[in-house]
Each structure stands twice: as structure tokens, then as C-alpha cells.
Amino acid sequence: MTKEEIITLLRENLLEIIPELEGEAFSNDESLVDLGANSIDRAELIMLTLEGLNLNVPRTEFVGYLNINSLAGRFLEKIEAGA
Amino acid sequence: MSFLPPIDIAVTGMGVITPAGVGKGPFGDALKAGRSNFRALALEQGGQRFQYPAGLVDGFNFREAISRLSISPELAAKCQRMRNLSKSASFGLFCALEAWADAGLEEASPDMERVAIVSAGSNTQQAGLLAIQEKYREKLQFMPPTYGLNFFDTDLVGAISEILGVRGEGHSLGAASASGNMAIIQGCRLIQSGEYGLVLVVAPLMDLSIFEYQGFTSLGAMAELRAGDLPDAICRPFDEAHRGFVHGQSAGCLILESAEHAARRGQESCGHIIGYGVNMDANRNPNPSAAGERKAMAAAMASAGLSPEDIQYVNTHGTASPTGDQIEAEALLMAGLKGVKANSTKSLTGHGLSAAGLVECIATLIQMQEGFLHPNLNLQHPINDQINWIGPQAQKAEITYALSNSFAFGGLNTSIIINAIKQ
Fold this sequence. Notes:
The complex is a heterodimer. By secondary structure, chain A is mostly helical. Chain A has helices at 3-17, 39-53, 68-80. Chain A has a single domain (3-19, 28-80), classed as Non-ribosomal Peptide Synthetase Peptidyl Carrier Protein, Chain A (Orthogonal Bundle). Chain A has 3 helices and no strands. The model of chain B has no long low-confidence stretch (mean pLDDT 96). The chains are: A mainly alpha, B alpha/beta. Chain A binds chain B through residues 17, 20, 40, 43-44, 47-48, 50-51, 56, 59, and chain B through 81, 83, 139, 141-146, 149.
């Protein structure tokens, strides 16, 4: 699993959660809050991605990662740690 | 004798979903035509297939349905953005919006601090919750966070308040199959107390899972599907061949206002709630009590300042339960309502359970407004000939005062009085 693949999954999941972003150009460094994701949306994004990666890690391990890029980096760390 | 103060609460808007019709207009047409939509519902559990008779709403799609309502593009866009709505809540939300638009409230801009929401029913999302539980049973660590928020019955109350901007109080109210009537009564009380000028009383779909279908069947309350049955002929309120209730997917919403609040914004009412009676039998079980039902009807008539002769029509609880029908017919006679015109909306819609009372209040208001009484389907051999049952065809009727009953397991008895003419 590469970081790019994780980014693709995160973006797919984000579009499922906020369909209004469909067709919009947004960068991976933009804050999720600025993209319209409230706290429930962000929790859902992490859970959907954990499920997609079949990664058994508590959601609290992802607190403070505020954009797709940093979240993808954190997911990669967890995968590489063999979580 | 009544311990209740007189009330006069205007109904200014209605929204409704039933198997017979989605929206106020189509539902009214179905009532007139005596149309129903019962089928065999097949569900699977543990590798086995089970079938139940049920009144089903065909192809309801929340986003598509909202786009057909007369609401502003801004309000419609808010609805389209609403996610993770259970089927139960989406039915309720659609009805709330239809009623809000029907009452002309988008243009009226009422003081939202003085608007409250009462939602009828508890445990209304069973099928939706079960589907999520089944999906995550073997991977619980991935449970969607929204489950912890949306499983509450009050999720609908929150969704309506967010979309419409309601800032008064909101809660859900459970009284089993009497929830709809009880929520109307609670709405009347909130207005009567002077705390609120307007109350949105909504009843979401009681979305049964296979476990509730089978539980009702085990209890002997729900009619079983037998070989050779015609689904349309199974629900037979007050007929000698009645054999239990048939679930019907239903939801509804009423906008209740103080007469003063409605008058101030120049809104005509479509009817008034002018009395109610409510009591318990001190009995946890499902068996009804003629004495308790009579008492609820008598209290409702007394609180409205009416005598039994004034009541021209009764919208019965009429579930097609052999015991329930028998007891209700006895109670009607004990309440002095011999010879009254009566029908059971459940013969067309099935039993909406926690939504039934609200949907039946809407059915009553539509009949009063349009001057007819709907047919009683499948009533070929009435169990009692002292009530003036409406036959297989709709009848013309000018009704000024109607009584609508809802009774429930646990000995809960409710009756409300509806007046077609402004007081």
C-alpha cells in the first residue's frame, strides 16, 4: 500500500461523506474543516478508511491530522507498524 | 364530567405517507377510492425465509420526493444534503416538510423560539439499525460513528430542527400504538400551556425488522399469511373473519397552532382539535378494556363540551384484532355512540403502529374537508350491527364533529375530538 493509494481511498470516502465536493478541485493539504467536514464527518472518514484498509487501530490515533495528506501519512505509519 | 380545560387547537398543515398514497392529495384520492396496497413481504433470517402480510409504500425515494414539494430551493438543498437518515426518519422528515409547506410556514417566518417538535413513537428504526448491526457484527471495530448518534428516536427531531431552524423544545414520545394520538395530545398541551404558539407533531415510519414481525406473529397479534391468501383480503377490521392486524408502512405530520397564532398570520385551518381523553387500564398486557376505552371517549367528548349525539363519525382504532375489535365495538356502545358512522382507516393502510393515530387524524380531517367517509375494506359480515359501518363504497357525509381512537398494549387508551369548523 502506497501513500498515493491511501490518498485515493481517503478522497473517495470524503466524496461519499460530502457529495457536494464531487467535481470540485481541492488539494490534499486543504483542511477538512474548510472542505465542509464537521467532527462527525471527520470521524466517519477515518472509520470508513480504517474499514477499507482492514486496519484495526483506535480512531483516537488519528486525532490532530487535519488534512488528507497528513491523514494518509498517519495511515501509512500504522500500516508499516504492522497494526 | 371532565377534569380537562376546553381546548381549541388549529391544524394548519398536513403531510402524510401511507401504502395507499404518498402526500396529502394522493392519500385523499386513495381514501375516496378505497385503495390499499397489501402484499406478501418476504424476509430472511438464519437461512430461513419468512413471509408476512404488509401494506408497503412502493419506491419512496426521499431526495426525489422532496424535489416534488412546494418548498424553496434553499430548503430543498438543505434536505438534499442531509445524510445518514434512516428510512424511518426520512419518511418523517418528508411529512414534516410537506406539512410545513402546506401550512404556508416558509413564507410566514414564525418566531422559531416558540415552535416545538413532538415526534410520535419509540424504537421506530428497528429494520435500519438491524441492517447496520448485521453488517458490523463480525467487524465491530469499524462501527460507523454515526450509529452512536442516529440510533436515538430523536435523530428525526434534530434533523427537522436543523432544516427548519426550530429553536423551541423537541422530544419523542412513546405510547406504542397510541403514540400518534398521544403526540397530538402532547402538542395540544404545549400550546394550551401558552409556552408555544406552534407545534410540529410528526410520526416517523415504524420500520419493523424481521424480529418485530415475528414477535407480533408469535404474540398472535399480527395476521399470519396462509396458503392461498389474497394479501388485500387479510386485513378485515370488524369483520367476523378478522384474524389480527396487518402492518402498514405509514408516517405523518400535523402542524398545530393556537387559534390566535394562526389568525395572526392569516392562516386558515383545516380543522381543530377540541378535546381529548387519555387513561391507562393498570394492565401491562396487550388485552384491551372496554371500560378504559369508554372512559377515554367519554372524557374526550366531555372536554370538548359535546354529548355522544353530537359525534357524527368515529375513526376507530379498528386493527382487525378479534379481541380488540370486539372490545372497541362494546366500548363505542357503552360510550353512547350506538348508530354512529364509523370506519377503520387501517382497512386501507394497514396498522401504522406508532404512526397510526396521526395518520388517522389526517384521514379524518381529509374526509371532513372533502365531505365523504371512506370505505371499510373487507367488512362483509360485521361483528356488531349497532354501529353504522361504512360499506365497500365511500359515502358522502358532512361531518362537523368526529372522534378518533387509538389504543395500545399496556392498557393505554386515547381519544381525540376533531372539529371541522373553526370555533
